[in-house]
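yo

u said u wanted the structure for the complex thing, so here. seqs first:
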Amino acid sequence: MKLLVVNPNTTASMTAKIAAAARTAAATGTEIVAATSAMGPASIEGYYDEAFAVPGLIAAIREGEGAGADAAIIACFDDTGLDAARAAVAIPVVGICEAALVTAGQIAKRIAVVTTLERSVVPLEEIVARYGYAARARVSACDVEVLALEDAGSDARARLEAEIDRALGLGADAIVLGCAGMADLAAALSERFGAPVVDGVAAAVKQAEALVALGLRTSRRGAYATPRSKPYAGVMSPFAPPAAREILGSD
Amino acid sequence: MKLLVVNPNTTASMTAKIAAAARTAAATGTEIVAATSAMGPASIEGYYDEAFAVPGLIAAIREGEGAGADAAIIACFDDTGLDAARAAVAIPVVGICEAALVTAGQIAKRIAVVTTLERSVVPLEEIVARYGYAARARVSACDVEVLALEDAGSDARARLEAEIDRALGLGADAIVLGCAGMADLAAALSERFGAPVVDGVAAAVKQAEALVALGLRTSRRGAYATPRSKPYAGVMSPFAPPAAREILGSD
Amino acid sequence: MKLLVVNPNTTASMTAKIAAAARTAAATGTEIVAATSAMGPASIEGYYDEAFAVPGLIAAIREGEGAGADAAIIACFDDTGLDAARAAVAIPVVGICEAALVTAGQIAKRIAVVTTLERSVVPLEEIVARYGYAARARVSACDVEVLALEDAGSDARARLEAEIDRALGLGADAIVLGCAGMADLAAALSERFGAPVVDGVAAAVKQAEALVALGLRTSRRGAYATPRSKPYAGVMSPFAPPAAREILGSD
Amino acid sequence: MKLLVVNPNTTASMTAKIAAAARTAAATGTEIVAATSAMGPASIEGYYDEAFAVPGLIAAIREGEGAGADAAIIACFDDTGLDAARAAVAIPVVGICEAALVTAGQIAKRIAVVTTLERSVVPLEEIVARYGYAARARVSACDVEVLALEDAGSDARARLEAEIDRALGLGADAIVLGCAGMADLAAALSERFGAPVVDGVAAAVKQAEALVALGLRTSRRGAYATPRSKPYAGVMSPFAPPAAREILGSD
Amino acid sequence: MKLLVVNPNTTASMTAKIAAAARTAAATGTEIVAATSAMGPASIEGYYDEAFAVPGLIAAIREGEGAGADAAIIACFDDTGLDAARAAVAIPVVGICEAALVTAGQIAKRIAVVTTLERSVVPLEEIVARYGYAARARVSACDVEVLALEDAGSDARARLEAEIDRALGLGADAIVLGCAGMADLAAALSERFGAPVVDGVAAAVKQAEALVALGLRTSRRGAYATPRSKPYAGVMSPFAPPAAREILGSD
Amino acid sequence: MKLLVVNPNTTASMTAKIAAAARTAAATGTEIVAATSAMGPASIEGYYDEAFAVPGLIAAIREGEGAGADAAIIACFDDTGLDAARAAVAIPVVGICEAALVTAGQIAKRIAVVTTLERSVVPLEEIVARYGYAARARVSACDVEVLALEDAGSDARARLEAEIDRALGLGADAIVLGCAGMADLAAALSERFGAPVVDGVAAAVKQAEALVALGLRTSRRGAYATPRSKPYAGVMSPFAPPAAREILGSD
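structre next:
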């Protein structure tokens, strides 16, 4: 099967890291196609950046679906645009935050999500709550800018480790890495701390493989109904939803 | 004071209706400036449309702030882009869903939110929950497309009344109209049903006036911190956050 | 319009302070009428005092309504007697805790309520939860007796500032002052801490103005139905609800 | 031991019925002393009546404590004044709603509380939630005025039975009678419906006996701290809390 | 009446201590019959031990019912097997955790449950949440193995006191002892800390007496329906549910 | 990899059906080893049966781990013994209810779980809540005994379809089959109703594959800590936990 992994920020070096993590996790027979969004912020740190990452993300997912992807993964821990993307395409779409939580929840009772900046804590708490993990997961930040994770000379790793240490001391049983830019660190951190450390990119690859293998597609009932055809204006007009038939194919 | 009311969909006739409702609610001395978004969908019905309404919305709010608005109102009941907008500008930003709920909550215990299409019910339930009203407010749809509210010949009014009737029968004490396109109906519906009917546009005008009069601005701590300056690519690049100083002024 | 602000404790110096804060917040054209309850405790600290503040409060609100008030404000942060008052009179009734929370919630995600004594923390947590803000607001006490706030020589201000400092350190984005007796401090504290500080009295004035301007009155359905006419005994007998017609007028 | 059962409404015939139910439930060696409040409404139906029942209730409990009662029971299903009473006296105070819920919760998973008038549903839902039973208990009304339960010729019994029938059909495993005035009906209703029917008065007698036998008294930490001594004004002045020593005795 | 108290672990010395606590709490006329489970772990510390304590527990309760017990108490703070036992027998079954919580909840707002080992904290948090006390009760461990409580020479008492001290400092109003093996310590600890300390064994005796005196039995509707007759295999076969008639008697 | 699928009831025909569903879902290279528990009830319907299914289940999982299984699946929708099993063995253990919910939650907002008998509804609601899906998932029963699903001549299929139809009418976007005995029906039901239908057995195979592929094992911190070595008595004694070293291997 072919899985599209979209980095919704526009920093290609991060895409490369994400793609590598995805390929390591992929099953034999799973092809990983990685894409960097062509529009939007260089990193996604909080509500504002999130909002502007969505059009490029949707464009990339639409394009990937057209090129034959069986499922798509949104490789930003805010699960930016996840609900819009699920409504937009027929293939399943997996968010790395949701994937990481459902994975960690099957091996641990109390989960610590460690993200980058304080400004992302509340946005993550909101989706953690929406996914149903508020009572089991605590979100905190290690005070590292996202792109500092791309800079080998920064103290990002040390700050992340300090925060993981603190989270375990507060009672966490497992750690979830709260940024796609940490995807290369899970194994080493797990070994260092003697506790499960879950990377959302790898977790999402397995969830996407699962949905495809099970033949499950996003429900078209309720909130994920195919967008109604209507005019879109301005630079957004290319995103106008065509008739449902065109989106979902003729069957 | 000057209040900017942005219709984040691109249908000008709806903006006119919204502006009229806002002007009716405004205090003496409050000037209502209404703007129609220049980018995005003609109506906002569910997650997909929401996502593409944000850039035009933020552009309009930024422009309004530059032109001296004291506060901004987002006149779509999904409170589309509200968190991004609060991070983006220094002036307070009010969402009509949040404004309607806090208003209704001070005159009734159990609230029914009646919106347009079924696909909007879960998105609204999610923000109702985030605002803290899940235990008191029930969301339902009257199966009317947003733009049918603009068409005097449609059966939109009859369907809306039928759903209000049903909601009152299920125990609601007050009704919240779950679409900015219903802003002209509140008074007549309240009279007809003998129960408070709250329109979010009018409610938001009063909340915005309140915040301005009290001298309160969005906190810059935590999730609403000013976006960090960084590169933005593609058609999103005009939205790249400049340095905080430029956004918030020199003080 | 005419707004009645009732101090439900019997300390007139606190009423003066409250009235001043209310007048500062009031719009042009809003007349503030302040009343001190004639019955009950000199300060309201916990469940016991709350219970005995209600009859005097209701009497004052009834009287104010008779004298033409368009809305009433209960200026005690426990929102003492708020539900009974809403059932009792036809005009809207606003509580300063609820008003402060809905105001702070529109400019910040995480709210710290700082009140006076530890014994008031749980009562406030209970109403914060009822209003739907439990997930966003944390209540703590600064260990100051209510009337110490009236005493310029006390260390009340220092203790309050210390607790605000602690609350911000724990992640609050905005502060809500948890006692009407702190109404004069909001502006100075906001400036000192560089974070929004919301005083419930001022917030309530704006919420009351909003309800009046919107023509909204307490719903008569469900829990706020007009009290049924029935005998009352003892010193409570003057509070016996007359027939609904007499309460709400002839229309 | 001596248990004081206070009917906080001022209808003596209801007190007689309550006393009989209490005596039937009491253990050998438990003396039931029943008191009718001397102040307040003839029946308690919603927030307004509740508020005015408290002073008479507290007076009766204070008097009962002075006369040697080992514990007090508040025999109104709204648990009117319960928190204030717990702060006021040294002996344990039991509410019939709380007692009924904790009892029913030990013999059934899903509980239906059937009360009198619709206006009491939300107030009861609020205390049910505060006690922690919101997920397990549903509250509904049978549309019977409280005093109609005193009138053998009314259709109160038929309406109550119809509502119980409906609640069982909706999945309840046990019924809680939501008004002290139904205390005489539990046994017959249980037999008729083949399901446990819990009367709060009887349940409260056992909870009060339990607390006394275990030597447990209300905690003086936190919200139930002894009221601070302070001036009270007007007809409320007799309720002014004296020094803690006077309230709790010299030990 | 005759109350069966089952120690579901297989350590007889703990049964003796539990029986003594139960007898101290029992009313005149209540006979306490204590039983040690014949199957399972010597102590119950976490999910694994819990699971294997159930068959012996159910056997003991069945036997006790056959020998005329009027109610049964499960004397392990995990309320091990409580739901299965309620379905299994006609007499009421009381768990010491649930009994302790409902008792503490009537004399305090905020409860601290202090248990033995960290591994039991989440299992207890889960039942505390199911009983509805999550918002009011905090669970922590004092790092003492259950059987160390049987060893007078251990430092168990000192560790327990240190944790109680910490819990009170964090705002608890009352303490619940989170292990049946602490049943002998409640009185001394209460005196030492000047706060209510609730032992679940004693609390359960009173709750069981209450249910028996009120004539209440476990509802047979819903989740506690009598197990359907069906084959059981292996060493579990003696536990196969016979026909309902045989279990519940002929009436 | 080798996945052990344990049917915790003792009905071999159901194991065969479960094994077939598991093999259909398994990836190339995944070997499914199915085991029927040797001890316990022929079907698991409610709390009582659940309790007695655990020892046989744990024995089968221990044995499977010894024979080289990489992960284990508990194929009963109550997730019977899941927490005990996770503590017992080093390999990951997946429950079919949890697996089905996390799968359905990635393709739908509102989930309907349709189980067999009414008595299982509350037990399932309790685990659904514990997993965090209470706000999104509704549980109902189709009134079919588990073993009737094995009987081609029964009306089980018709009843199940009627309940699915009802659930969709109430707003569900996706269906979760609430019994392992329905594992063969998912595809046909999905086609018939035009909505995603998730079978827990298939979902669990993919979750188990995911955990194994990611190298994740159950955390040994907190509630899933390896059981402490201690004596076990009676027929339970073979289950006594040996020293941790013996359980988890020498590394």
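Chain D has a mean pLDDT of 95. Chain D has nine helices and ten strands.
cya
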